[in-house]
Amino acid sequence: MDKFLVKISKSKKNTKTNAEKNVGLSEENLHSIEKKRSKIDIVPNTKDINQIQNAVSSDVVTSKSDQTTNTLLESDNFIQDPGEKSTNALILFSSGFGPYQPNNIIFPQHSGRKFRPEWYSSFPWIEYSPSSNSAFCFYCRAFPSNTSDPTFVSVGFKQWSKASYKSFPQHEKSFGHKEASAKLAGYKSSKKSGSIISKVNTHHQQIVADNRAYLKCILDSLLYCARQGIAVRGHREDEDSSNKGNFLELLTLCANDNDIIQRYFIEKEKTFRYVSGDYTNTFLEYLANIVIKNIIDNVIAAGIFSIIVDETQDLSRHEQVAIIIRYATKDLSPAEVFLGFYETETTDGETLSMLIKSTFVSHGLKIENIRGQCYDGAASMRGSYKGVRARIREENHLAMYIHCNAHILNLCLIDLAKQVSYVRNVFGTLKDYETKKSFFLLYQNQIVREK
Ligand SMILES: [Zn+2]
User: Fold this and answer.
1) Distance of CA 3 from the midpoint of ligand 1 (Å)
2) pTM
3) Rounded to the nearest whole angstrom, what is the distance from the C-alpha of residue 2 to the centroid of ligand 1?
4) Which of 100, 55, 62, 53 is nearest to 80 (CA)?
5) Cα-Cα-Cα-Cα dihedral sign, residues 113, 117, 121, 127
6) CA angle, 205 as apex, 250 and 198 as ends, to 5°?
7) How far is the C-alpha of 246 from the C-alpha of 238, rounded, in Å?
8) From CA 116, how far away is CA 106, in angstroms rounded?
9) How far apart are CA 125 and CA 55, in angstroms?
10) How far is the CA of 117 from the centre of ligand 1 (A)?
11) Average pLDDT over residues 200-208
């Protein structure tokens, strides 16, 4: 088995010329760009070319006797002789091969002259084809263009008499050869340090990663406010405000030791900050959906569960129905989770039972898995015929009704309080809304006076 030893070592020489940077593209792009860019000015100066050539020739060595070899490549699948139907030179180059420069052979004569192996060192791009007794240019074969000289790409050069003093130096100075050299060096450089496209990609990926990291900071801060049950917004959030609310103040605090928040939020490196009311509401909605999904997953995993439902008026006099689910965790300890407040127009049994059912359906919970239902003593809830309790049991007779113990205790306390005239009077006074309001103002004044 014939094996070629190929050295693919890192060149210490600085060969990053402008020409290289321009053509530092990946292999697949080179083929398409090859056709389009022959008119683009990528011709480096002679000094650059020499540097490139030295770098290339010092990196790719085909000599079998070179003992500094790092990598062993199988040559069975490659035909290196450029005179035969050789493997594509670019494929050879990307596989670690360089110009085909056989040494220990007899070079036949042509017109009284023959090929001289010393030329390998004077012209590192030269290849010799034993089958056709002619010379080729490896660089031009690897990166052919419209301006490439076909003699050195496909035909083969044999005019040995004027090779070293005329034809080879002439070819070296030709536009096609310089272009091919620059492309080859650029290709080699892109292999080492990554192509421009991959560098642009890397930069883009960094931006995306930073954006995501900032968004995570925003979400973490919102989640913190939500978990602590503190208001997100402030009364005044403009730049001059001394207190911009919990969310913005938290971000300002975190910016001290978080570079991303510092850049995006304080220094305003980006035009977006994602801190307006619309954004925070949207983010909170997304976060709530995730929290609810986790809760529902746990409930579904538990199999069966009970429900606790109660309705009350909020400050704006809208009826809010609170739905709570109680289930057993994996280690059989009880868990109670609050699903949410659901607004309703009316509080009759039919409306409330429909609300509960539709909420369950929207979350993927099944009515037939309910084993207990716990409400207050209101007729619309506990009614034996038209109450929520009866309507749920119509669908699932295993959903046993239990009068809420907390409500029973509350009723007991009310009855008890009514027996004491002072307490009765206090609650009677408090019940009146206007009185409540004036009491509140009185209480506020009292605080101000104490201060
Ligand atoms: Zn050439």
Assistant:
1) 27
2) 0.49
3) 28
4) 100
5) positive
6) 160
7) 14
8) 10
9) 12
10) 18
11) 86
Alpha-carbon dihedral sign for residues 365, 367, 372, 376: positive
pLDDT in tens, 330-362: 899 999 999 989 999 888 899 999 999 999 999
The residue to which tokens 């994996």 are assigned: 330
CA of 288 to the centre of ligand 1 (A): 66
Which residue(s) pair with 110 in the sheet? 113
pLDDT in tens, 219-247: 999 999 999 999 999 888 888 888 999 99
86: its two tokens: 């050789």
How buried is 268 (Cβ within 10 angstroms: 0-12 exposed, 13-18 middle, 19+ buried)?
Answer: exposed
Distance 75 CA to ligand 1 centre (A): 24
Tokens 């409400």, located at residue = 375
For residue 148, the SS3 value is coil
- Six-digit token string for 300: 């579904």
Pairing between β-strand 334-344 and β-strand 113-114 as defined by DSSP bridges: unpaired
Query: How far is the centre of ligand 1, averaged over its atoms, from the C-alpha of 57 (Å)?
Result: 14
- Over pLDDT 90: what percentage of the chain? 42
pLDDT at 434: 60
Query: Rounded to the nearest whole angstrom, what is the distance from the C-alpha of residue 345 to the centroid of ligand 1?
Result: 85
Question: By the 8 A CB rule, do 107 and 133 touch?
Answer: yes
Q: Determine the distance separating the centroid of ligand 1 and the alpha carbon of 237, expressed in angstroms.
A: 68
How much distance in Å is there from the Cα of 70 to the middle of ligand 1? 27
